[in-house]
């Protein structure tokens, strides 16, 4: 079994949250989604994230969804839960709930209220006090948090956080940052942690792997793309990794459009049979007929290119 610790690697897929056409939480479809992901070789699941519409769930729904995912996974891969919150009472409560249900660890991003390096580091000192012995992932996603964490402050956090086992790197541009953090651990200046990358459905995944990333933690309606790219890179077939990535890139790019990205992903997952409905809770985008036509064309072209690659 894969473990959520500094040796974690592969693909920790950021999942959507399935709803019925009426907007209710769909636990039966949750089972279908988990099976879909595991059948495609993911090594972990990350739930209650931004693309999982976590902010649109009630506290009881978040617990019910976590319980269903953990139960369906059955210990086959780690399940990581997003618990980011400006307040530590809420973070601590949700962490206790999900860990009690059987989650493997949690993920925390800084709130938009911290700005200086000292403020950021001080915030994560309080995260350590709140989480205690729970293994956790540091999420660096300036696009959503508006918080810029330099390599120096990330290294500072890692040095003071014995239970931080992973960095979710999704700064953009961020290849130089990734290289600097990995080089610091290679020199023994800081403990080695797993680095999984996000960056818009893995839009820079091959380059990030070459810079020292251990895999991906992001979402895409074709999780097997990330699984196969990471596997090819790990066995030293870098050109194959790039060829596979290139085949999926147009659709991955389309799925990352601001505003409609979630609608595109849920539409595709519905088309692939992973979820019963493409419904997203308000506020939510809707696809136009032209959007659907674009998607259908991109899927056809992707299938053609994959067939050529064998």
Any overview of this molecule?
The structure is a single chain. The chain has 310 residues and is an alpha/beta fold. The chain has a single domain (10-238), classed as TIM Barrel (Alpha-Beta Barrel). The protein has 13 helices and eight strands. The protein has an eight-stranded parallel barrel with strand order 1-2-3-4-5-6-7-8, surrounded by four helices. Strand 4, helix 4 and strand 5 form a beta-alpha-beta unit.
- What is the number of strand segments? 8
Radius of gyration: 19 Å
Number of discrete domains: 1
Q: Which segments are poorly predicted (pLDDT under 50) over 5 or more consecutive residues?
A: none
Biggest sheet, in brief? 8 strands, parallel, barrel
* Large-scale geometry: globular
The CA-CA distance between the termini, in Å, is 30 Å
GO molecular function: 4-hydroxy-tetrahydrodipicolinate synthase activity
Family: Belongs to the DapA family.
Keywords: Lyase
Protein name: Dihydrodipicolinate synthase family protein
Short descriptors:
310 residues; TIM Barrel; 11% strand; Dihydrodipicolinate synthase family protein; alpha/beta; lyase; eight-stranded parallel β-barrel; 13 helices
Map the helices and strands.
Blueprint: E1 10-14, H1 27-39, E2 44-47, H2 59-73, E3 79-82, H3 88-101, E4 105-108, H4 117-131, E5 136-140, H5 142-145, H6 151-159, E6 164-169, H7 175-186, E7 194-197, H8 199-202, H9 205-210, E8 215-216, H10 223-234, H11 238-255, H12 261-271, H13 289-309
Parallel strand pairs: 1-2, 1-8, 2-3, 3-4, 4-5, 5-6, 6-7, 7-8
Helix pairs in contact: 1-2, 2-3, 3-4, 4-6, 6-7, 10-11, 11-13
